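Escalated from tier 1: tryptophan holo job.
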Amino acid sequence: MADFQNCGSCSSSLLELFERVSAQGEKVRSLKAVKASTDEIDAAVKLLLSLKVTYKTATGQDYKAGSPPVDFSPVSSNGPAATQDEDFVDPWTVQTSNAKGVDYDKLIDRFGSSKIDKELINRIERVTGQTPHRFLRRGIFFSHRDMNQILDAYENKKPFYLYTGRGPSSEAMHVGHLIPFIFTKWLQEVFNVPLVIQLTDDEKYLWKDLTIQKASEYAIENAKDIIACGFDINKTFIFSDLDYLGMSPGFYKNVVKVQKHVTFNQVKGIFGFTDSDCIGKISFPAIQAAPSFSASFPQIFKDKKDIQCLIPCAIDQDPYFRMTRDVAPRIGYLKPALLHSVFFPALQGAQTKMSASDPNSSIFLTDTPKQIKTKINKHAFSGGKDTIEEHRKHGGNCEVDVSYMYLTFFLEDDDKLEQMKQAYTSGALLTGELKKVLIETLQPLIAAHQQRRKQVTDEMVKQFMTPRKLAFDF
Ligand code: TRP
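Tier 2 regenerated the structure:
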């Protein structure tokens, strides 16, 4: 238990503050659980964030659910911990007050990961002999853990495998959801390695107002979109938790090993669970951890327990894998390596990531060319000026302009992107013209995805999702 001896008189008010933050966190969770309106949730999240900032200013420590304040050393008001614009990132909430989006350098410091710098990108290029993917060139995958170890293994002809996943919360996937899969496909191609994809239908059943039946159906529908990204059927195993756990003793044994080595206090600290969360949620992180260990897939890796794993994911998933890396050596396994991406911004701006429940916040994989055009023209937040005259005179701001941000994700041509940045910043290129380029980039991309998805048959889905040996000998 925490002890509050350091500051007899201030402990009660700090403890009160701690409790206010906990209660507000609880409120946000319950608003989300009952699907309250976005406005109501946003307001509650804002209050939560400001309480967290107050807490940090007062204690000099990040608020950690389940760990009341221990050591009170208030930081000076101009200290690094006292900034008013602290971002908040966990697997369920991404919030920042900055229109440029989350401060990812700060996140690297807070999470204790490493930056993907020029040197690492050059090494990837040297080792693979391939031009680094635009997501690497443009800092979209920006952070990592132990990537050099993976490259060492690859150079020494030691095998590794890829693991990524998706929580099937609805049928509708949007372009942002494709980011990890597009990148994972590239990694699979350049390194020629096995890939496992976890569909956490169990997670979505536990967190959302969904029946088991619906969650399973969404898993299958999402699997089709994932397959449409072009994964090699001979090198890829896709599984739904609700299905695979019941038929894989190897997998379940690893879940239980993780469960034995992580305490309730630890998951409270990492994920903000409270005493009133159901036990399914509390134990779920063990299920997302298990695919990081090759022993969870004996059909692919036989009895090999030491094949290293590399996980490409959005940075909000890192809490799961911090936990995984912490337990791995204690249960005799290697720590998985990670590559983290930034979030894909909502059309309305980079303060938050896109939400599948708000149709106007995203471009969906099912949108028609016309819908894409209308959404971008109507909703994409512009960093341009209010009038053409002003825009020509002062130029636009690419740092907050969502159409420009989307182009950094999807326009392959580096030179063209740079030209547009310069022209937009100088005022030569207008917002409408920039939007037109984005519309013309996304329309064919989405149409091609829809074509490929149409060709994905139920038989193919079944094959991808059947536990089997892949095209690698272990
Ligand atoms: N929890 C993730 C989500 O809600 C899904 C997931 C499971 C995942 N395992 C993963 C994502 C591994 C990235 C990497 O979307």
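Residues 403 and 435 are 6 Å apart (CA to CA).
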